[in-house]
Amino acid sequence: MSRGAMFSYYLADALNARITAIAPVCGGISKTMASTYSFKKPIPAFIINGTADPLVSYTGGYGKMNKRNEGNEDADLLPTEELVNKIAILNKCNSKPETTALPDANASDECTVTEYVYDCGNNKVDFIKIENGGHTWAGGSQYLPQIYYWKNMQRLQCFTKNN
After folding, report:
1. pLDDT of 2-61, one tens digit each?
2. What Rg do the C-alpha atoms of the chain give, in angstroms?
3. Which residues contact 109 (CB under 8 A, 6 or more apart)?
4. CB–CB of 133/50 below 8 Å?
5. How many whole angstroms separate alpha carbon 131 and alpha carbon 126?
6. Can you tell me whether residue 42 is helix, strand or coil?
7. Where are the alpha helices (DSSP H) in 35-130?
8. Rounded to whole angstroms, what are the CA distances from 105 to 69, 96, 158?
9. What's the predicted TM-score (pTM) here?
10. Pick from 152, 153, 12, 138: which is nearest to 83 by CA?
11. Where are the domains of the chain?
């Protein structure tokens, strides 16, 4: 998750012959990295990102909560859907994914989930888009300080337990 997700993307490129699959959550790659990002062999991917993530923006741009990111071209992230499409192309997938609206586990959390599955033979790319989801495991506890949530007036997660 988060920087671990970013590291899994990096390893898929740098150690392609040794990595058998990745499952990044709330992460991305920089536009700088994207310019040379490639796979020698396809790698199955299971990707989960929320559209209201205040730290790793779904629409791309500089990461938040780290002042060193501002203006650093290596921190200017690719938009999520562009990254998913890039991985689907690298895995030689069909261009159009199968789309499924997943059941709403909690109607009061303001989140909905859509799954996009790209057919790539044995190297499927499965993308879970969480509308209004934030920077956390879906259904998990929010670990960022509550003051950050209220200060930024952005939804940090889809609540499912005890919220």
Report:
1. 989 999 999 999 999 999 999 999 999 999 999 999 999 999 999 999 998 888 999 998
2. 16
3. 132, 158, 159, 160, 163
4. yes
5. 16
6. coil
7. 80-90
8. 35, 27, 10
9. 0.84
10. 12
11. 3-152
